[in-house]
Design goal:
With 233 residues, the chain is mainly alpha-helical. The chain has 7 helices and 2 strands. A two-stranded antiparallel ribbon has the order 1-2.
Amino acid sequence: MLCGLSCLAQTEADADSIFTISSDSILLKELAPLDTIPSSEDIRSVGLLTADTVVVASKVKRDWNTWTPNPQRALWLALVIPGGGQIYNRKFWKLPIVYGGFLGCIYALSWNNMMYKDYSQAFLDISDNDPGTASYNKFLHLGRTINDSNKERYKEIFKNRKNKYRRWRDMSLFVMIGIYALSVIDAYVDAELSEFDISKDLSLKVQPAVMGNPMIENPIYASSLGVNCQLNF
């Protein structure tokens, strides 16, 4: 009886000792050395990592000499952000061309739109009979006035200029859309051809050659001088 009670007490003591082990010291497997990074299988095989265990992955530095852009990503960046595809492809020298074209088109669009509105108002003022509306006077040369003798001629002039600046305004908008489309196409094609192999053997050799005609028996007349072109690619 005493032996059974002592065994039971020893068993309970062992059980209590199992459940009182500190949670930050339980490891089912020996971890890798501190100078190595454990794999995912090693981490999964560990029952419980200690709170002080930190796994740090070293960041790999990108080599820009061997980096190649993704054509799809370059296309979407160029669609969302004008010039974004050129930035992604690291073709920064194209940015002044792209943004210069956009700024030029925006300036031309605003200028032609302003002139179109001014000449439209001048045409409306000269067409009515209200003497209080005379915005067309700012387009007249010094000392010139509009009377009944030249009113129809100035009306035609204002109408033609109104139509001209409206046409130039619309053309500026279409040119800006064209520059945007070209920037998108350029970004995609540039990224697509980034891995295109340009061999050093790509060359054209031009050298003189002697060509013969087997139909002529006389070797003097059968031979003729020519140019031989050899293209290596």
